[in-house]
Each structure stands twice: as C-alpha cells, then as structure tokens.
Write a structure and sequence with these properties.
The chain is α+β, with helices and mostly antiparallel strands and 358 residues long. It is built from nine helices and eight strands. A hairpin with a 7-residue loop joins strand 4 and strand 5. Helix 1 packs across helix 2 and helix 2 runs antiparallel to helix 3.
Length: 358
C-alpha cells in the first residue's frame, strides 16, 4: 500500500491537497463547529431540551415515588451523555486527515456509538434490578404529577424523533475527502536477482449525490430517542393503571419494559460498532467476495491473488486491498484497472491493488 505524501507549507500540513492547521480548541471555535452542521446543531438543541426535562422527570419521580418516572429520567440523563458523546464525535469526525490520522477522524463516530452502547447496557441492568426488587415489595405511588409529566416527556421525545429522523433521512454520502471517483497507480521494476516487478494502484469510490449518508451518530441518537419514547408510553400506561385500578405492579412492569427497550435499541448499535472496530469484513460483501475472487483469477494475465483485506472505515465507507500475481508479459495497468472495476462494482469505496510479476 502506498504511503500518503505530506507537504509542509507555511506552517501547514497538507494531505493530498487538503490543508489542516494544527491548533488548540477554543470555546468560540467549538461553538462555530456545533452550528456549522445541521447534524451537530440538532444534537445540541435536543441535548438542552432533554437535559432540562430529565431533571423535571427525576424531581417528580422522587415526589411521586414512581420508579418508572425515575428510571425514565435516569435514562434521559444517560441519553444526554449519549447526545454529548455524539455531539463531540460528530465534530471530531469532520476534522481533516493528517500524518498521524491518515484516514481522518471518522472512526470517532464508531467509538462514540460503542461508548453509548456500554452506557445503555449498564443503565438497563440497573433499572432491571430495581424493577425486580419492586416486584417483591411494590411501594405506594402517587399519580397526581405522574401522568402530566409523562405526557410532556412523550411530546419531547416525539420532537426528537421528528428532528433526528428528518436529519438522518436527508443526509449525504461521505467517505473521507475523496468523494470524486478516480483511479491511479505507479509502477517500478526492481532489478535484483528475483527480477520481480511491482505495481500499485488504488481507486476512490464515486461520491454520488443520490447516495444517502448513513451517520452512525444520528443512528445511535435516534435509537435512544425511540427507546425513550416507548418508555414514556410505558409510564403513561402504568400511571393510568395505578390511578384507575390501584395496580402498583404496573410501575415495575413499566420499568421492565423500559429496560428491555433500552437493551433492544442498544444491541444493533453495539454489534455494528464492535464489528467495525474489530475490522470485520463488511457484511454487505460476504455474498460477493468469492465471486469477485473468481473474476480476478479469470482476468487475462493473472496467475493468482493473495492477502485480501476488506474493512469498514465507517458504515458507509468500505476499504480494501489485494495483491495480484501476474505473468511476466502481462499488462499490469490493464490488470490493475480491471481488478479495481470488479471490486468497485460491489461497493468497495477505496481499493488498493498491488500487482507483482511472477
């Protein structure tokens, strides 16, 4: 794989023509970064709303002795943590690549999703433990303030669903700064006793404006808000059951419902973030790779291939590399371009091909 070339000009580092200034963070700069993107702006505004109402829920939860309301308030506080992590990740992910982070900072979204998932698993088991204790000894619950607070919480979460679903469904594709499609390579001959020639090439995927950007941050935040919404619905149902029928067990049942919803919303987030962080071959390629390998072997002049590697930089950006051994008289440029086309056709956004003469 070719090493990126960096050029130092006027105190700036440049990677493939993209300049990046090194400097510290400032409050004004952070504020500008937050408002520069609709994604980070929506997260920040909903963070303020969510934080305010989380304290309202906790206050009235303690006042009414409702575990359902307290657990939903605690979950909203953890959602605020998730929103804050997502906000920071979305800002960091926009930073340009440099010599230390040659792929850029887009993995910060994945790391943020993984951290949020761990937080949610912890709070889900905490709520589950408290609910089981209340099954054994159900406390008396005051429903005077419970219902109106739960209804307001539902409205807050519906606002969040609308805002984040709208932002999530109107995104744009991203895969680093190389959104224009092109391929290039260079070759060099080693005149030694092995008489092997090597050629390297890579391609950048086509940035199609019609291709939706799948933001890992927005996906995680949306899952949190949906779980909160279902939790608010559970609190409303339990408060009505307690008020009408005196069914105190409805509160721990509601809490169980909330914990299950949290775990259910967290599963896909943790599963995908772990897969990406562990460099798993993207699932979308599982059914295509063997076909691609057969096509590579059938390319004119190819003897064999070795060292295939494919991974996701982000859920929307796939990277791959492959070494191809060709006959001594084969056209290395033609072979390389054909191999690039094979993998580009199945969704590999950036492919690096090394061609070696036998």
């Amino acid at each position: 794989m070719m090493l990126p070339q960096y050029h130092e000009e006027e105190g700036e580092r440049k990677l493939h023509g993209h300049s990046h200034r090194h400097g510290g963070f400032s409050i004004s700069g952070m504020c500008r970064s937050v408002w520069a993107s609709p994604e980070s702006r929506n997260i920040f505004l909903f963070l303020l709303i969510n934080l305010t109402f989380a304290f309202v829920e906790l206050f009235y939860g303690v006042l009414s002795n409702s575990l359902g309301l307290i657990s939903d308030g605690i979950h909203m506080l953890f959602d605020c943590t998730a929103l804050l992590v997502g906000l920071i990740a979305s800002i960091i992910a926009r930073r340009a690549a440099n010599e230390r982070f040659s792929f850029g900072y887009q993995r910060s979204e994945i790391l943020g999703g993984f951290i949020n998932g761990l937080f949610l698993v912890f709070i889900a088991f905490f709520i589950l433990k408290e609910a089981l204790e209340r099954f054994i000894d159900p406390p008396h619950i005051h429903t005077h303030h419970l219902l109106p607070v739960a209804v307001i919480g539902l409205l807050v979460n519906l606002i969040g669903i609308f805002a984040f679903q709208h932002a999530h469904s109107h995104g744009h594709s991203h895969g680093g700064d190389d959104s224009h499609g092109h391929s290039h390579g260079h070759s060099h001959d080693h005149h030694d006793h092995h008489d092997h020639g090597h050629s390297h090439g890579h391609t950048h995927g086509h940035g199609d404006d019609k291709k939706e950007r799948r933001s890992f941050v927005m996906q995680g935040v949306l899952l949190h808000v949906i779980a909160d919404t279902l939790g608010s619905v559970g609190v409303i149902i339990s408060s009505l059951l307690i008020k009408q029928y005196g069914l105190m067990l409805a509160d721990p049942i509601c809490s169980l419902f909330i914990s299950i919803m949290i775990l259910a919303s967290t599963y896909s987030l943790l599963k995908e973030s772990i897969s990406i962080l562990m460099q798993r071959t993207p699932p979308k390629l599982d059914s295509h790779l063997y076909t691609c390998y057969r096509r590579v072997n059938k390319v004119d002049g190819v003897i064999s291939y070795r060292d295939p590697h494919f991974w996701s930089l982000t859920p929307a950006y796939t990277v791959g590399s492959l070494s191809v051994v060709i006959k001594n008289d084969a056209n290395d440029t033609a072979v390389r371009n054909e191999v690039l086309r094979i993998f580009e056709a199945v969704g590999v956004d950036k492919m690096v091909v090394q061609v070696e003469r036998f």
